[in-house]
């Protein structure tokens, strides 16, 4: 199932996308977080609603929001989780690459979350080094603590595309990534959550990031350093994961700051983030003061 949060005629609701039409699921739950918390029962009820659906709304008639527009806590992110990206990141600073032995974890503020077609704000008084990072994001379904890797996949609700937009000047200046990763609009997500049953092998997907139609990143999820079960096992060790938690699993190589010369987002740019089997986001970069 492809699950969306959308606005239509001034109303915000959740739905399922079926052949470019949206089946309204707002009878089942007030928002995506609540639907996720209903677990398998909620998905079964959604399937019934789809089967019985009379009236649908064309996808083109709605505005899609991030599938979880206001997560209840920060988006959890893995840094340096693709070896070629590790090499380019160290290389850009003239250093020799060291692969991480433990996952590099940071978070993005909930207020950074952005829709799949919404503008990414650009304000040169804040940053002049806005960069892209296309990533596969895992949506946690069932809560868990100390989840063994062998059981990790059963805790996953679904997957979405996420771009971990990063203000490199702010990120590198501080001792923590948080501020540089958390500007408003710096976490486009979507266009929908694809439920886990429809993506049985999330470690075999192509991820692509295009800037103004030119491919900048083109990787595959099979080369993650810490795969999804290892990541969930690590994160949940002594720390409860909750339904609706979002885990961005890292980006492949091809980011802007590591290019020669470095490249950063500019007003007027269009950033496309695509993952095979999920979909495409298309975010314009818009100047603001
Ligand atoms: Zn990232």
Walk me through what this model shows:
The protein is α+β, with helices and mostly antiparallel strands and 289 residues long. It folds into 2 domains: 63 residues, no CATH class; 213 residues, Alpha-Beta Complex (Fumarylacetoacetate hydrolase, domain 2). The chain is 18% helix and 34% strand. It is built from 7 helices and 19 strands. Strands 1, 2, 3, 4, 5, 6, 7, 8, 11, 12, 14 and 17 form a 12-stranded mixed sheet that branches. The protein has a 5-stranded mixed sheet with strand order 9-19-18-15-16, with no helix packed on it. The longest helix is centred in the N-terminal third of the chain and has 14 residues. The protein is globular. The N and C termini lie far apart (40 Å). The mean pLDDT is 97. Zinc ion (ZN) binds next to strand 6.
Helix and strand composition category: alpha+beta
What's the N-to-C terminus distance?
40 Å
Instruction: Count the beta strands.
Output: 19
Helix and strand succession? EEEHHEEEHEEEEEHEEHHEEEHEEE
